[in-house]
């Protein structure tokens, strides 16, 4: 008996160690980044002696940094919205309509996931050559919409595959036209998946550097701005702005999770 | 008004193929206004297919469907005056009970005050008063069943289609809901086209039953007709319990059909007008409750000798199985007060000619 317990204890300890290792691997870079945002030294590095909030003040009053941040937020909002808007009809058709070449269509939609961003950026740059005016925010939005589209379509597609089809039929049966049925039933019940697709797209666009760099022209998104800085100086200002971003994303994720959980509890079960 | 307009639903030679596989084969029958008609048959016989053709989710490959005399083939579900109660109820989980029931009226653009009035009345009738504001996830299975029923009935369809609506309920609730459903249907006088593969449920609830097998309509009639006068071996076997005795038609007289049974036995049965030809193989169908022990002197006609195999006490009655000539196992129900033989006894079983039904061997 005692032996068995000791064994369980030891394997529990190993599991704990393993878990810590995995989480460390994921979160150590982020923790480091946040930690050095409070470093009072000009060039961040160990030992961490004097702490300050000064870098936050500096970052948040740096016009250039804030302009890049705002560009990135706009690009992310636009490209995520566009991606979701385009992905929804595509996912509906893929999930619910009998299409002759469905595997081929799915393949074409997933393909951008495995194409290096470098190739996409270069391709778009060549494509935009006749209309150089597009380079800039519009160009980055187009590049990021392309990238987001495949993820958004896959998220919505898998959601719609599992959608209770009898709900759609019941709405139609009770007199709802296709459009009413979509607004009254499909859209509200797809809200969590749409939110997930949107958040995923937003995050992807917000942090994307390579494709954006090709098509941004003289415009600077936040990753481009940070990259430009890093070429001459490693300032804790960047840590500070990154910390703000991490805090905002974590808050957004938690809010989204809470919202989804609340909805699920409200609508739980039914006859099924 | 022509004959057809009195019928809620008319199926004319309805045939349906799924990618070449035949699911419905030349099905024709009519459902009268206010009737409770059940589609009954084993799994895969095409019941759901016929219901979906009626509701407009499928179009027949051939044939015609008429609602109150008007063909509806090609008319989409939202323009059809039918309503479906789904097996999984398909209640909208993001809406309250009242909002679910109101859905169809809202789609029809009815004024909110009128909707509220009708919804309240419907909830009252279904015993759901006070549950209107509940979320769909927070009601019981039986209540969900009634919400689904109310949501479909409130739009006053020409025919209400129900696909195994009690299938998800446990036995006790199921029995209770059978009575409830029948009461509601009678009260509002709505036409019900009901699907089940439970023959007891069909017999208990229906005005008429359409027995189906492998996409074909085997027989259409009242529960009484279906049970007492099955037109085929399949129907006899599928509805209730039946003893099937293989025979050969010896003679077709105007007043009786004479049959040769196993061994030297010979039986007579009432002619039905659709009997097999003289010399043809046939099956004699006798319900267990119509077999009785024959006391000596044993009559010549309509008896069969057997050995008692098993006796099962059922409470008011006893169920006996006996092995007859030709290795036929017969089931007999002996009512209260009847004499009970012992296992292994040689007995003679008799029946009345009018209780015997002759069907083809197929
Ligand atoms: N969408 C479909 N595609 C191809 N074949 C189908 C489809 N739906 C049903 N079938 C086939 O058609 C036949 C009839 O099916 P249907 O669903 O109407 O049977 P059912 O009587 O409702 O059976 P159950 O009691 O199991 O619900 C079956 O053989 C089934 O396999
Ligand atoms: Mg079915």
List the helices and strands and how they pair.
The complex is a heterodimer of chains A (272) and B (362).
Chain A: H1 2-36, H2 54-60, H3 63-96, H4 102-114, H5 117-127, H6 137-161, H7 165-173, H8 178-207, H9 210-215, H10 222-230, H11 236-266
Chain B: E1 7-18, E2 21-32, E3 36-40, H1 47-55, E4 62-67, E5 70-71, E6 82-85, H2 97-107, H3 112-125, H4 141-153, E7 159-163, H5 171-188, E8 192-196, H6 199-205, E9 208-213, E10 216-221, H7 223-228, H8 233-238, E11 243-252, E12 257-260, E13 266-269, E14 281-286, E15 292-293, E16 303-313, E17 318-324, E18 328-334, E19 346-350, E20 357-359
Parallel strand pairs in B: 3-8, 3-9, 6-7, 7-8
Antiparallel strand pairs in B: 1-2, 1-4, 4-5, 9-10, 11-12, 11-14, 12-13, 14-20, 15-19, 16-17, 16-19, 17-18
Helix pairs in contact in B: 2-3, 2-4
Bound molecules: adenosine-5'-triphosphate and magnesium ion (MG).
Residues 18-19, 21, 23, 41, 43-49, 197 of chain B line the site of adenosine-5'-triphosphate.
What does this structure look like?
The complex is a heterodimer of chains A (272) and B (362). Chain A is mainly alpha-helical and 272 residues long. Chain A has a domain at 62-220: Orthogonal Bundle (MetI-like fold), CATH 1.10.3720. Helices cover 77% and strands 0% of the residues of chain A. Chain A has helices at residues 2-36, 54-60, 63-96, 102-114, 117-127, 137-161, 165-173, 178-207, 210-215, 222-230, 236-266. Mean pLDDT of chain A is 85; it is low at 268-272. With 362 residues, chain B is α+β, with helices and mostly antiparallel strands. Chain B has a 6-stranded mixed beta sheet with strand order 6-7-8-3-9-10, with helices on both faces. In chain B, strands 13-12-11-14-20 form a 5-stranded antiparallel beta sheet. In chain B, helix 2 (97-107) crosses helix 3 (112-125) and helix 2 (97-107) packs parallel to helix 4 (141-153). Magnesium ion binds at residues 47-48 of chain B.
Low-confidence stretches of chain A: 268-272
Q: SSE string of chain A, helix = H, strand = E?
A: HHHHHHHHHHH
CATH topology of the largest domain in chain B: Rossmann fold
Number of beta-strand segments of chain A = 0
Overall shape of chain B: it is elongated
In CATH terms, the superfamily of the domain at 62-220 in chain A is: MetI-like
Strand order of the largest sheet of chain B: 6-7-8-3-9-10
Assembly annotation: heterodimer
In terms of structural class, how would the helical and strand content of chain B be classed?
A: alpha+beta
SSE string of chain B: EEEHEEEHHHEHEHEEHHEEEEEEEEEE
Distance between the termini of chain B: 41 Å
Low-confidence stretches of chain B: none
């Amino acid at each position: 008996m005692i032996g068995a317990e000791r064994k369980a204890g030891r394997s529990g300890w190993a599991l704990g160690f393993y878990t810590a290792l995995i989480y460390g691997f994921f979160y150590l870079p982020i923790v480091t980044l946040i930690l050095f945002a409070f470093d009072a030294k000009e060039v961040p590095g160990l030992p961490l002696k004097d702490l300050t909030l000064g870098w936050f003040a500096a970052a948040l009053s740096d016009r250039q940094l804030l302009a890049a941040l705002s560009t990135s937020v706009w690009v992310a909002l636009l490209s995520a919205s566009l991606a979701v808007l385009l992905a929804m009809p595509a996912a509906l058709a893929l999930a619910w309509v009998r299409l002759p070449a469905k595997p081929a269509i799915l393949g074409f939609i997933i393909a951008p996931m495995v194409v290096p961003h470098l190739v996409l950026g270069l391709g778009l740059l060549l494509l935009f050559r006749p209309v150089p005016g597009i380079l800039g925010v519009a160009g980055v939005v187009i590049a990021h919409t392309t990238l987001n589209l495949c993820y958004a379509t896959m998220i919505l597609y898998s959601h719609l595959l599992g959608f209770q089809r009898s709900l759609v039929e019941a709405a139609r049966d009770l007199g709802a036209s296709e459009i009413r049925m979509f607004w009254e039933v499909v859209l509200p019940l797809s809200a969590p998946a749409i939110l997930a697709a949107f958040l995923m797209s937003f995050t992807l666009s917000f942090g994307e550097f390579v494709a954006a760099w090709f098509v941004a022209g003289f415009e600077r998104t936040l990753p481009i701005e940070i990259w430009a800085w890093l070429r001459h100086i490693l300032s804790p200002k960047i840590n500070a702005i990154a910390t703000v971003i991490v805090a905002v994303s974590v808050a957004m994720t938690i809010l989204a999770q809470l919202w989804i959980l609340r909805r699920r509890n409200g609508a739980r079960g039914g006859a099924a | 008004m022509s004959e057809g307009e009195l019928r809620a639903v008319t199926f004319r030679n309805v045939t349906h193929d799924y990618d070449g596989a035949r699911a419905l084969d030349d099905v024709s029958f009519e459902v009268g206004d206010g009737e409770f008609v059940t589609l009954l048959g084993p799994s895969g016989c095409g019941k759901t297919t016929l219901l979906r053709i009626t509701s407009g989710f499928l179009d027949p490959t051939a044939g015609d469907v008429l609602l109150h005399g008007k063909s509806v083939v090609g008319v989409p579900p939202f323009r059809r005056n039918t309503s479906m109660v789904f097996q999984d109820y398909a209640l909208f989980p993001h809406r309250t009970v009242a909002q679910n029931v109101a859905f169809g009226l809202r789609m029809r653009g009815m004024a909110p005050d009128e909707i509220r009035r009708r919804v309240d009345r419907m909830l009252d009738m279904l015993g759901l008063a006070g549950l209107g504001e509940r979320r769909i996830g927070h009601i019981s299975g039986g209540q969900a069943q009634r919400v689904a029923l109310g949501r479909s009935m409130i739009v006053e369809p020409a025919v209400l289609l129900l696909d195994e609506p009690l299938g998800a309920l446990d036995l006790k609730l199921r029995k209770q809901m059978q009575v409830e459903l029948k009461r509601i249907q009678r009260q509002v006088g709505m036409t019900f086209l009901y699907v089940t593969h439970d023959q007891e449920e069909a017999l208990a609830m229906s005005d008429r039953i359409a027995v189906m097998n492998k996409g074909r309509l085997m027989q259409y009639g009242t529960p009484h007709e279906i049970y007492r006068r099955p037109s085929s071996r399949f129907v006899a076997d599928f509805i209730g319990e039946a003893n099937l005795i293989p025979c050969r038609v010896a003679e077709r007289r105007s007043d009786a059909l004479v049959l040769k049974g196993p061994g030297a036995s010979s039986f007579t049965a009432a002619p039905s007008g659709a009997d097999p030809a003289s010399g043809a193989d046939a099956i004699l169908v006798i319900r267990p409750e119509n077999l009785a022990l024959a006391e000596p002197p044993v009559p010549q006609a309509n008896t069969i000798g057997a050995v008692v195999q098993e006796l099962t006490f059922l409470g008011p009655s006893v169920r006996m199985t006996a092995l007859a000539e030709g290795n036929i196992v017969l089931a007999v129900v002996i009512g209260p007060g009847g004499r009970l033989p012992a296992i292994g006894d040689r007995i003679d079983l008799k029946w009345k000619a009018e209780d015997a039904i002759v069907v083809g061997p197929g």
